[in-house]
Each structure stands twice: as structure tokens, then as C-alpha cells.
Amino acid sequence: MKRLLTTLFVALALCGAAAYAANEYSAGPVQKMVTLHQGWTPQIAREMWHKAQGADLMPVAFFRALRNPDGTSFSSNANLKRYGFIDDAVSKENPYGWPIGFVVNDGPKTHGIPEFGVTCTVCHTSYLQYKGTKMLVEGAGGAITIIPFFGNMNRTLIETAADKTRRAAFIKAAVGYGYPKARIDHDLAAMVATLVKQNAIGAPATKYSTPDGPGRVDALSGVVYNLMVKALGVAGNARRAVAPVNFPQVWDIWHLDWVQYNAAVHQPMARNVGEDIGLGAHLNIIDANGNLNPPSTRWKSSVRIRNLFWMETQIEHLKAPVWPTKIFGPIDQAKAARGRILFAQNCARCHGISRIRDGNEWAVHTIPLDQIGTDPNQATGFAKATYDARKIGMSEHQSGAVALADVATKVKYQAYKDAGIPKSEWPKYDGFGRKMKTEAPCGYKARPLIGIWATAPFLHNGTVPSVYDMLSDTRPAHPIIGNPEFDPVKLGQVQKSTPYTLTIDTTLPGNSNAGHWWTNDKTRKGRIGPALTDKQKYEIIEYLKIANYQNYPTVTVSGSFPQPCAGNLHWADGSKLKLTI
């Protein structure tokens, strides 16, 4: 079977899923569902939810035929809701009634076999719940547990293939769903063999990895893992995942001159191709024996470049959600006005909109690690980790940032050619003609905060449950993530544990909830400013409820801001963080 299963951090998922609880994304009975109108028509939203971008996970017939040990359908909505996925109805775009973000990939790219896959909205669609009302938030990070989902799916397939009775029932069902009978024995065996091999590769790294939990994953490491371990077939490139990050909101992302939490990527299409690799796009760098494919086919992939471009253009129309006063109550306008002044005085120097003259770009400030004081693992790990990239003509100790930029560019250009896109249009597809740049700065970007009220938890690693906590000089010692019940007073997730939430161990690598402090202790690392009174905190909160593109602090600048440690991939070499296994 030429198309083998490819998933985000699949080996880590396979051997680590049992360490996580599945997440029932519900906090009680729902009486009504509302949409926070954010600029997409219902038709555009459905297409965004279910348009294939090339991340093929397994044949549709396999996914539909898969059964849990108790005989229930793995692909049923009842099972999928356990992982936080959001229900959606049957439609032309969603023929099987799968959750938001699930897709059917078909056509020549899948060699005649329709494939089940996921798309960007699987991670970047969320909902809030409040007193029985459920509010869909387009573009916000969802509280999904995606690593356990992949792991349990893969483990179930392996166990099914190993059990004579379950295997026979699976094959009968898959053939009934359209899988070619003449191919299924061979293809199932090939897929399972690949999974078992990947499990063996990933097991040592998983042992020391930090649990991610609802709404978090070590995203950039996952992308690099899929490239350096799976696509190159180099087992020694496996690294442990110690930098889980919160799925960010994607409205306004197209404006930002640098994206990723550590401001590592400049070009929109390079970001999207990298994300596609992370979600499971098939690469063709090596053959079944681990040897390089010829240059004529080496950079071919399952990436659907035209769909990625269409999706990127729709992101430009996505707006931040507007505070629903009919649900949460009216705004205290006088308090919000005072809060706007406080925000401008205390927050806008980093989080304001800095519009680059004569364009649509916003320059983002990247705050050095020693100034912001938040958990350094995501930035440090991306800069420090090296990989054996000799197969593709690079060094034995190659920076992952450089290798990813090189491969993503080659895959992107090959996809342009394969899609018949004229070279004159490549700059448009790249995104506003932006050049391909990848950095590994020693800091994190501070983006504008319009709509931030709907995106808890906070900090890049999702360890701070509310805006109120972000403005305070203390933080919950054991923050809870994954509860969708909204706190409209503190602007965050209700701190109530359920069987499906995760209580963060802030002592683990990647999980610190320190930094970005408002404190009178001038010696505390990561101090942003003096302690705020409760009155001041709630005034800022009141403003953030109604912050919009008209009332937000905005300045015009001449160009991008300097990046800390720009061009220096060795700034983290002295770090005590151990990344090898």
C-alpha cells in the first residue's frame, strides 16, 4: 500500500495515549446553540470545516469499519466526543456526519482510495458554554485531546488486526464500505507493520514527554518529528515532547509578520505546508526501503496547495468574536473606558497593533525570554534540537528550523508545479509576496488581543486559566484545563475538575505558569509592571470584552521589529534542557 498512515506525532501517540484521559467536551446539558457571527457565511464555515488539505490518516473504509473492543464504532460521534471534537451534521461537505475538522480526501492524490483526514479547523474551532447556552467560536483553539485520539485509533487498529475474530469482522465491514477486496489483506498488514515500527521508534521519547491534555500539543516538535523521523526514516532523530502549547486563535493571524509562538515563521504558505506535514501529509522523500527517491519525485506530497490557499484567503475574512451581551449581560461602558486607558498605558506597548506602513502587515513584538520569564522550553527546544539530515544533503547535526524551512520550501514549490500554478502566481500563493524566512528567536511574540476573552487558557502553554490570573501576581498552583464552562467575570475556564479535564503539573518541563507578572517585587523574573488592584484588573477585563478594530490602540510603524537572537541558531546551546533520548 503506497499510502501509509501518517499522523501528528503518531509514534508518541501510539505508546502514550493511555496516560491521558479522553475529553468529553461538555459541561452539562445544553438548551440552545448559538453562533458568534465572525464574518463567514454558513457555507464558507462548512467548507472550512471539511475541505481536505492533504493530511491523510487512513482509508475512509478502515476508519468507518474500526470498532472498539466493546464492539462500538470508533468513528461514531458518541466515541469521538470523548476527545473533545465538535459535532457536525451530515452535509455535502461532510457525508458521514463527522465532527468539525474531519475530512474525506479523494481523487488522484489518494491513489483511488478515499482517505479519512483532518484539517486545520479540527484544532482551531472551539465553543464556550454558559448556563446551558453553547457558543461556537470560529478560529479559537479547541479543547481536543488529539494525541490520545490518534494513539487510541492506531492501537485499536493494531489490536483488531491481531485478533482473528475482530480482524474478520473489520475486513468484511471495510470491503462493504468500498475497500478493494483484493488489496485489503496486504494493505492492512502494511499499515499495521508501519504502526508497530513507529511505536518502537517513539517509545523511549514518550517515556519522558510532558502530557499535553485538552487543547495543547507540542506542535512544532510534532512537525519536525514527522519530517526528521518519519519522512527521512531516521529513528535516531526522535526527541521527547516537552513543550506543549495552547492552540492559538487564528483570526488576525494573516496580518502578523511572524507566526508561531516563538515567532519562527514569516511566510503564510510555509506555515501552512508545515502545519500540513504536522497533521499527517504524506511526503515522498524516501522509498519503502529507506532510500532517497529520485529528484523528479522526491518532493511530491499529498499537500493540496490550492485548498490551502483558499483556506488562507478565508482566514482574512474571519473576525474576532463580539461579546454576546444577550448571554453574558451588558457592558459597563464607564468601566470599559477606564480599562481602555489602563490597557493603553500598561499593555499596548507589546500587545497593541503596530500597522506596517503601506500594507496589511502588523509588526509583532517578540519579547526576550529573560524579560517575559515564561516557560522557555518551546523556544529553547526549537533552537537547540539538532537532527541527522544527511539523507537530504545537510549535516549530521542539523538545526530543525533550517531543515524544516528547506523541506517545506521544496515541497511547496513541487506542489505549485503539480497543481499547474504559473510561476508568476507563486508570490500570491506564498502570501502577499512574503519571502520564506525561518528563525528560532530567544523569545515569544506578543500579538494583539482583540477577542482574547474567548480564548482561555492563556500563556503559550495554556497554564493560566483566566485573564484575571494573567493580570495578577499569583497564579493557581494546580490549574485545570479542558472545562468549556465559561467564567464571564474573570474571562476564563471554570476551575472545576471533571473526569475529562487535565490538572496541570506546573513542575514538569514545559508546564511552568510563571512569568508575565504584575507584581511589586522588582526582583521577580518576568515582571512586566507593578501589581494591579482588583479594581484595575476588572476595568481592563471590561475593556477586553469590547476591544475591537476601531477602539484598539494602534500605531503605524515603518517595518518589522528586531527579533531577539535573530540569525543565531546557537543561542540555546548552553541550555540545561535535555532534548535527546
Q: What do these coordinates show?
A:
The protein has helices spanning 10-16, 42-50, 60-65, 77-80, 146-162, 164-176, 181-207, 219-231, 268-279, 295-298, 305-315, 325-328, 333-346, 348-351, 369-372, 377-384, 400-418, 426-431, 467-470, 534-546, and strands at residues 32-35, 56-59, 102-105, 115-118, 125-130, 133-138, 216-217, 245-246, 353-356, 365-368, 386-387, 398-399, 443-446, 480-481, 486-487, 492-493, 502-503, 517-518, 527-529, 554-557. The protein is an alpha+beta fold. It has a domain at 331-375 and 443-557. The strands form 9 sheets. The chain has a 3-stranded mixed β-sheet with strand order 1-6-5, with no helix packed on it. A 3-stranded antiparallel β-sheet has the order 2-4-3. Helix 5 packs across helix 6 and helix 9 (268-279) crosses helix 11. It is globular and about 70 Å long.
Q: Which short descriptors sum up this protein?
A:
globular, 3-stranded mixed β-sheet, 3-stranded antiparallel β-sheet, 581 residues, 11% strand
Q: Secondary-structure blueprint of this entry?
A:
Blueprint: H1 10-16, E1 32-35, H2 42-50, E2 56-59, H3 60-65, H4 77-80, E3 102-105, E4 115-118, E5 125-130, E6 133-138, H5 146-162, H6 164-176, H7 181-207, E7 216-217, H8 219-231, E8 245-246, H9 268-279, H10 295-298, H11 305-315, H12 325-328, H13 333-346, H14 348-351, E9 353-356, E10 365-368, H15 369-372, H16 377-384, E11 386-387, E12 398-399, H17 400-418, H18 426-431, E13 443-446, H19 467-470, E14 480-481, E15 486-487, E16 492-493, E17 502-503, E18 517-518, E19 527-529, H20 534-546, E20 554-557
Parallel strand pairs: 1-6, 9-20, 18-19
Antiparallel strand pairs: 2-4, 3-4, 5-6, 7-8, 10-13, 11-12, 14-17, 15-16
Helix pairs in contact: 1-5, 1-7, 5-6, 5-7, 8-9, 8-17, 9-11, 9-17, 13-20
